[in-house]
Amino acid sequence: MTQDVIFQTLGTLSGQSIGVVTLNIEKALNALTLDMVDAMQVQLTRWKSDDSIACVVLNGAGEKAFCAGGDVRAIYHASIANPNNITEEACEFFTKEYQLDYLLHQFGKPVMVWGDGIVMGGGLGLMAGGSHRIVTDRSRIAMPEVTIGLYPDVGGSYFLNRMPGKTGLFLGLTAYNMNAADALYVELGNYYLNSDEKEPLFDAMAEVMWSQDNAENHQRLSDLLTDLSKQHIATLPTSHLQQFQQQIDLLMAGDILDVHYQLSTLNTELDWLKRAQKTALAGSPISWHLIFEQAALGTELSLADCFKWELGVSVNCCSMGDFCEGVRALLIDKDRQPKWLFADVDAVDANKVTQLVTSPWAEDKHPLADFT
């Protein structure tokens, strides 16, 4: 395997070790390939049951990104070659990606994620699985799937629906770029450090008295990060999400046509909100419907059931949704002129939405049937 992902262990004064995963395709903003996902699944599964590993750290090479998402080009090419069919490539990529995310959520040991720079899509799936999620002055966090005919997957059905008010729906529809304060507000991040503090943090972690008790190790890492974060609270940027929560809730109130009308007629001087408005209105009308279907799941589903729901929707999007056209316009031809299947949100056929959210597998044949 090429060094697209690097695994190292750091020794500590306690005699226990820290497993470090570095996503290492800096020129591609550390976007996840299937090979990277496979390698991480194997190594993290080993570390999970290795008593000498007290804690795991995920970070990205370079200064621009932790991880800008999944590399979906292979899925695109397979789907274009097999129109209206669910491809092996789509099934394999999304299945393995969600298995990796789920492993992180269920890891037991502390998982620290250094969420510096761009954290988008699949990168946010990794980050959400961490127990200790650090954001920095450079963090730019978003779920931009509406721009490629998808919807916020990688567990978004779980974490977006647990955010304050209508924030999750707003983030899904607008691909709004969160800063560190926004991420802390919606609890995607739980600690704030400066982007130049990664090395000092690793040094400090080497001096922690780690044990073989997961609960103790969680507490020790929490204590260290709380201590280091304290000095930066004064330098936190403003959170637009928190400051304008009431307006966001009003903007997102009602059914899909209400929200579309409210966004279409919005007249604002706020640059961040103008950008959010523009992205939402240019997004896939099918994605809009899927994001509303996702929001309607509420908080009833377990994390495991959210991933099962998402896998069906994701593979369906690749075979009969706007995904291929969105990827073509943004990543392949880069003309940024997608020709969506439906002209606007109002024109989307209800049968199409039903097809997209209907699982292609019987429950006992589901690729994630072993998620409990």
UniProtKB/TrEMBL annotation:
<dbReference type="GO" id="GO:0016853">
    <property type="term" value="F:isomerase activity"/>
</dbReference>
<dbReference type="InterPro" id="IPR032259">
    <property type="entry name" value="HIBYL-CoA-H"/>
</dbReference>
<dbReference type="GO" id="GO:0005829">
    <property type="term" value="C:cytosol"/>
</dbReference>
<dbReference type="Pfam" id="PF16113">
    <property type="entry name" value="ECH_2"/>
</dbReference>
<feature type="domain" description="Enoyl-CoA hydratase/isomerase">
    <location>
        <begin position="18"/>
        <end position="356"/>
    </location>
</feature>
<protein>
    <recommendedName>
        <fullName>3-hydroxyisobutyryl-CoA hydrolase</fullName>
        <ecNumber>3.1.2.4</ecNumber>
    </recommendedName>
</protein>
<keyword id="KW-0378">Hydrolase</keyword>
<dbReference type="GO" id="GO:0006574">
    <property type="term" value="P:L-valine catabolic process"/>
</dbReference>
<dbReference type="InterPro" id="IPR029045">
    <property type="entry name" value="ClpP/crotonase-like_dom_sf"/>
</dbReference>
<dbReference type="GO" id="GO:0003860">
    <property type="term" value="F:3-hydroxyisobutyryl-CoA hydrolase activity"/>
</dbReference>
<keyword id="KW-0413">Isomerase</keyword>
<dbReference type="InterPro" id="IPR045004">
    <property type="entry name" value="ECH_dom"/>
</dbReference>
